[in-house]
Amino acid sequence: MTARCRCVDSVPTRTPRNPRPHAEPSRPEGAVEHAATPDGTDLPPHAIWIDLANPTAEEAELVEETTGLRVPSRQALSEVESSSRLRRLRNGLSLSTPMITFDQADSQLKPLGFVLTKDRLITVRFHDLRAYAEVKARLTNGDGPATRSIEIFLLLMEELVDSLADALEEMGADLDALSTRVFDFDAGARPGARPGDSRAPRRRDIALRRILRSVGRRGKALGKLRASLLGLQRIVPFVAAECGSFAEGDADARFETIQRDIASLDEFETRLTENVQFLLDATLGLINMEQNNTFRILTVVSVVGVPPTLIASMYGMNFKHMPELDWLYGYPYGLALIATSALVPMIYFKVKGWF
């Protein structure tokens, strides 16, 4: 499947999406968006922002020939060491970070790359991100400057941080709902359950399994959100320090704001992680209680069964002279003694509240 290369130009024109666009008047600093073709006819050499979504080797080579900048491969963007994720180029910076796919059903970490110079920004990604669509919409509508690469980079960082904040807020709401499920879990009753319903223990077991899986999924997603947040936390101060020579206007203030936002999200993520661990411990505690209930029932059954077994074994001995052997009421006496020896422990355990 051929990827689509998106380019943003800062000229004051707006071009509709078609293979052969024609310029028409628009607001200042409007965005021009091109759908690149493999032969490169629609890739403007003066584009400020080139967004490569799942690029093929041919598209990467086309961008390299047009811009003179090397487009990092997916393998290079997946490197985990800091020296590979934050690199200085001859005339700019090469940056990469893992970014969560924001898919609640099956979130994944995929690499996200930036090549930033004074005059150009190249982004390389391998999944759809709402932040990119938001930035393109803002540029198209004139909501935000698009005259320099650093300004577009700041817009992307702000939208990415906002996406992570929204994901963490949703995670917090999910954990609150999950906390209600955990602490309102009644292991002894369910709506419509009848005393002695043999299916109740199995249903409780299934409910606890589902809760445990829910806690595990949220812990897994939270770990990926933390990895994404940590990547941005490293990129932003690095770019702020390295791009001071061509960062003008309010760029420094925006960098500081982004760093403060990331720091606050990091604290919020830490609290969510502690909440996940707390819910995990609580769920495991409920499972241990269920296991203890099972063992308690087995213990009661075994204790109740010991005295009748002892009495039956005594009167089952084949001795010639036994006092009750020729007694008319010997058999009823033995049955009554067996029943009494079973009822006494059951009454005792019932009074103690064991069952």
Describe the structure.
It contains eight helices and nine strands. It has helices at 57-67, 74-77, 82-85, 130-140, 149-183, 200-242, 251-315, 330-352, and strands at residues 4-9, 13-14, 24-25, 32-35, 49-53, 86-88, 92-100, 109-117, 121-125. The longest helix has 65 residues, at 251-315. The two termini are 64 Å apart.
Show the helix and strand layout.
Blueprint: E1 4-9, E2 13-14, E3 24-25, E4 32-35, E5 49-53, H1 57-67, H2 74-77, H3 82-85, E6 86-88, E7 92-100, E8 109-117, E9 121-125, H4 130-140, H5 149-183, H6 200-242, H7 251-315, H8 330-352
Parallel strand pairs: 5-9
Antiparallel strand pairs: 1-4, 1-5, 2-3, 6-7, 7-8, 8-9
Helix pairs in contact: 4-5, 5-6, 5-7, 6-7, 7-8
Main location: membrane
Keywords: Cell inner membrane, Cell membrane, Ion transport, Magnesium, Membrane, Transmembrane, Transmembrane helix, Transport, Zinc
Catalytic activity: Mg(2+)(in) = Mg(2+)(out)
- Give the C-alpha Rg: 35 Å
The strand line-up of the biggest sheet is 4-1-5-9-8-7-6
Distance between the termini: 64 Å
Mean pLDDT level: 81
- Structural class label: alpha+beta
Given as residue ranges, the uncertain stretches (5+ residues, pLDDT < 50) are: 10-40, 193-199
Number of strands: 9
Largest sheet: 7 strands, mixed
Order of helices and strands: EEEEEHHHEEEEHHHHH
